[in-house]
Amino acid sequence: MRRQRRRMLKTVGGLGAVGLLPLRVGDAGAAAATPDLPGFDTRSIDEVIAALGAGRPMDSAEIRITAPPVAEDGRTVSIGVASGLPGTDRIVLLVEKNPVKVVASYTLPDGTAPAIQTRVKMNETSNVYAVVRAGGEFYVARREVRVIVGGCGL
Question: What is the C-alpha to C-alpha distance for residues 94 and 89, in angstroms, rounded to an integer?
Answer without folding.
Answer: 17
